[in-house]
Amino acid sequence: MTKTLLTIASVYLAVIGLALLIVPAQFGVDAVPDDPSSELLALLRLLGGPLLGISVMDWMARNVDPSSMVNTVLLGNVVGFGFVAGNDVVGVATGNARDLAAIFLVVHLALAIAFVVAWVRAREGAAPAAAH
């Protein structure tokens, strides 16, 4: 399950990161004005870089045997997707988010929950090894 989850997250984050870097105004439909400032586009592109970095980290970690490093990668994804899902919940609940936020809410919440499950399972699997 962990390998599949990390693969899905890696591909998803790569697509979002590349979209922010290459077509930030189009990716930000309904959130970015028709004539965005160069500063706004630069900020959106700035966010794409770290997403690509996390994508690579997830991609590389998917084939590693369970270890504290994989546990750390899983926890990082729990935090990242958890905060993004929380932001989506608030935006959708208040009506302050763009229409696409409802779709992203489902994706981000599903990924956050899946990473929590994977992280808990990884910690349970690592507990006996730590006792030796």
Automatic annotation (TrEMBL):
The chain crosses the membrane at residues 41-61, 73-94, 100-120. Keywords: Membrane, Transmembrane, Transmembrane helix. The keyword Transmembrane helix applies. This is DUF4345 domain-containing protein.
